[in-house]
Fold this sequence. Notes:
By secondary structure, the chain is an alpha+beta fold. The chain contains four helices and four strands; from the N terminus they run ββββαααα.
Amino acid sequence: MNCSFHTATPEVGKQWTDTGEIHEERDLKGRAEGETRTVPGHPALTRMLRQHIEGERLQPGDLLLQGERGGILAGSVVRRAWRGARKAVLPPHVLESPTGERV
């Protein structure tokens, strides 16, 4: 099962955006303007995401995962979740290596 992505909203910092916002919405890196990227997904994860989308009644353009106030999820929350996931699944010697440091 696949998901399609149309845009990216990376966290770049206020000093690097024209709007003064932390995030900048733009087309996908390495793709032509307006081009999408199809990403394969594990069937179990795809089912969970579709249930979430249906349960939250999300529409195209809505955020899949939202922050506390309904906006973009804070980078610190994402980094903390990844750190916890790496700690839960990686053996200590890999977790402490450069491979285990960052996603």
